[in-house]
Design goal:
731 residues; 4-stranded antiparallel sheet; 12 strands; 8% strand; globular; disordered C terminus
Length: 731
């Protein structure tokens, strides 16, 4: 379609006008041209946007409509790049370089990330990740079709040119592999439904979110405090529990606060101020601001009519459709602690939201570290904790003498998501002071109006619930034996406190009640698990064994691990016994135990018409006999894991990065060479230089010279060795 600018009397006449007039006329005509485009193509877009065109050998993959192609081909030179020529190295190597650079200079402001945002290798890795989440299978980089790479390249170009928009419903640069192109034009009802109802996150949005996460996570992981453990790689709830056991011994007063209101609703100003403090790249900042400010379309909730319960047939999965989560996994998700149940989801940020939440709360973490240093008051009469350790590496042992006015005062802090826990060793006045300062800081920084009741101060004797574990203290009176003057062995009774971290049995009962597996409070009674009614005995036992194994692993660091796992085993075993009694018409659990034994490992009489799937597998030798339930006896349950928590603990990837950066430091190499010289040893590099030097001079390796030339040559060899060492050091 010819542009309107050539409809003037002549393009040459515009040269006589001023440059400002030409630019104004050009802008005016381009606006009219855009309106004309929309008016002429309004009817064509509804009919042609979603029609299937030639697949061009793409194996039944839907092609992007013509409107998207016209948009992304505005810059022909930029879009004509071959995607294969842009893949110059492995994406893992690119991300590793970003991690190394971030940890090397973790205090510098990052002014530019566009270089990493433009790397096509990172976009391919993000596509592989989202593809695996979508389909349940990981595709290799070489298996991605060229058409998909071209669409991915168009998405990257749109992001770099600021043409990408979040939450698009009709225009896509790249589609999900599970999407199918419509067979014909969409009706007005379908278009209205797409534009007004709640829809899942578009595939292209999830790819962009993964790219931003891969770029921003290394930058901020090097800056985050070691006191936060949620939404971070290598750190879990188990890490937080082990940290509490190792570092919170001896604290009397505890403050438990809930800052999760920050995670409920997005506050764009707070998020952007925290982000701009360390990252100044305009493209990345504008992209995240757009994701936070673009409204999310949420349709009205549907009112479902009550339907009569019908017999549910087995669902036959389509080819390539991922299997749903098994029942044991869904059941275990019900046991998620309160602190881990809430995951932030801001605007169109998706998987990027937890990282942004940690970025906002990172300033609070560093503020608490300053308070830890401020409240540290050592006592000369206390032999424990007299030296301040900013990294928290001077961990106190679990067994401590009782505190008093002449003991060392100290506080410690831990954060998991929006929940915080502060331990205070000292008078209650210190806890009141830190609470007042905390409330003032949250009101000034985050605009939170916290009351004293929202940050309660509790004594350790009452027990503090955190991550479904109760932190309490047990006073013990151990016998201290030592040898006095004259060789006499003296035995005395000592007094001390032992930090105890136990799993909450009441919390387990509440979770089982939510899942309708138990009834009653004081004397819980198992209820039949009717969701497994149509499954075979072998499959049901196998699923429940996985649930018990997962729960035993979750309570791994609890002092009452045996007790709580035994209780869970009792509930599940009783629930299955009632299920089998109803299924096989045995009337009572006693008859089920009599036939199937105590652990339900013997086969029960099957009903007619039951699925012969297990029998066929058993006949072919692909499965063994029915597995009995685990942990039916207390002696079979593993004990508590009391492995000491390392003082300077870091995740494995951070330890590797620190060791790598340490080896890169020239001072480290110089210290190693001096240490080897002092001990009379030689480095492998120096030994290789000696071998090369002597081979060039004598024509034989240094190990063989002493056997050929005798003692005289050995003296010369030692001189040559010194020369070789000197050459290697100069090099």
């Amino acid at each position: 379609m010819p542009t309107l600018i050539f409809r003037l009397k002549g393009f040459g006449q515009m040269r006589h006008l001023g440059f400002a007039h030409v630019r104004g006329i050009h802008r005016h005509l381009r606006a009219h041209e855009s309106l004309l485009y929309r008016s002429l193509n309004a009817s064509l877009e509804l009919s042609q946007r979603y029609t299937t065109s030639a697949f061009e050998g793409r194996d039944n993959r839907p092609r992007v409509h013509a409107y998207d192609t016209r948009n992304r081909n505005r810059n022909a030179a930029f879009d004509s790049e071959d995607p294969y020529s842009l893949v110059k190295e492995d994406g893992v190597h690119v991300c590793t370089g970003l991690w190394i650079n971030s940890f090397r200079d973790n205090h510098k402001v990052v002014n530019s990330l566009s270089g990493y945002l433009k790397r096509f290798e990172i976009w391919i890795m993000a596509y592989q990740k989202v593809y695996a989440d979508e389909t349940g299978s990981l595709t290799h980089r070489n298996e991605i079709e060229k058409g998909v790479l071209e669409d991915l390249l168009a998405l990257r170009n749109a992001v770099m040119e600021s043409r990408f928009k979040w939450g698009q419903r009709l225009e896509f640069y790249i589609r999900s592999p599970k999407d199918k192109a419509p067979a014909g034009p969409l009706s007005k009802t379908k278009l209205k439904f797409l534009l007004s109802s709640t829809q899942p996150t578009p595939f292209q949005d999830r790819v962009v979110q993964e790219v931003l996460l891969m770029i921003l996570e290394p930058v901020f992981e090097a800056r985050f405090s070691q006191k936060s453990f949620a939404f971070r790689p290598g750190r879990t709830a188990h890490t937080a529990i082990r940290y509490i056991r190792s570092n919170f011994a001896g604290y009397l007063w505890y403050l438990k606060g809930d800052l999760s209101t920050i995670l409920d609703g997005v506050r764009v100003g707070i998020v952007m101020n925290a982000l701009v403090r360390d990252v100044r790249d305009k493209t990345v900042i504008d992209l995240i601001r757009s994701a936070l400010t673009t409204p999310v379309i949420v349709g009205a909730p549907k009112v479902e009519k009550k339907k009569k319960k019908k017999y549910l047939k087995k669902k036959v999965l389509k080819e390539g459709e991922p299997k749903p989560d098994p029942y044991w996994l869904l059941t275990f998700f019900g046991f998620a602690p309160e602190e881990a149940a809430k995951v932030p989801d801001w605007g169109h940020c998706g998987v990027l939201s937890p990282l942004l939440a940690n970025i906002c709360l990172n300033e609070f973490d560093h503020w608490m570290e300053e308070r830890i240093k401020e409240f540290f008051r050592p006592s000369s009469t206390d032999v424990i904790g007299n030296e301040y350790d900013p990294e928290g590496t001077n961990a106190w042992p679990e067994f401590l003498p009782t505190s008093g006015p002449d003991k060392t005062r100290k506080i410690d802090y831990i954060r998991y998501g929006g929940h915080i826990l502060i331990g205070v060793r000292g008078p209650r006045a210190d806890a009141v002071t830190i609470r007042r300062q905390l409330i003032d800081f949250c009101e000034r920084k985050y605009g939170l109006n916290l009351e004293n009741d929202s940050v309660p101060i509790e004594h350790i004797t009452k027990g503090i619930m955190f991550l479904d574990h109760v932190i309490c203290r047990r006073v013990v009176y151990p016998t201290l034996r030592y040898t006095a003057t004259g060789g006499k062995i003296v035995s005395e009774k000592g007094v001390g406190t032992l930090l105890s971290v136990t799993a909450s049995l009441n919390q387990c009962i509440r979770q089982f009640r939510k899942l309708e597996l138990v009834k009653g409070d004081r004397d819980p009674d198992p209820q039949p698990c009717f969701r497994m009614f149509h499954a075979t005995q072998a499959y049901t036992n196998a699923q429940m064994n996985k649930l018990l194994s997962t729960m035993a692993e979750w309570f791994r660091y609890a002092d009452n691990r045996k007790k709580v796992v035994n209780f869970c085993s009792y509930i599940i075993r009783g629930s299955l016994a009632k299920l089998y009694a109803a299924k096989y018409k045995l009337r009572s659990r006693a008859k089920v135990y009599k036939i199937a034994s105590h652990n339900l490992s013997r086969p029960l009489k099957e009903k007619k018409g039951s699925s012969p799937h297990f029998k066929e597998l058993l006949r072919m030798g692909l499965v063994d006999s029915i597995d009995g339930l685990q942990y039916t006896r207390m002696s079979l349950i593993p004990g508590t894991d009391y492995t000491p928590f390392p003082k300077d603990w870091r995740p494995d990837h951070e330890q590797i990065l620190q060791e790598y950066l340490k080896l890169e430091n020239p001072k480290t190499l110089q210290e190693q060479q001096v240490s080897l010289h002092d001990q009379g040893l030689i480095a492998p590099q120096d030994y290789m230089s000696i071998m090369v030097w002597n081979y060039k001079k004598h024509g034989i390796f240094s190990d063989q010279i002493q056997h050929v030339n005798g003692p005289k040559e050995e003296t010369d060899l030692s001189d040559d060795e010194e020369a070789g060492v000197g050459i290697s050091r100069v090099a």
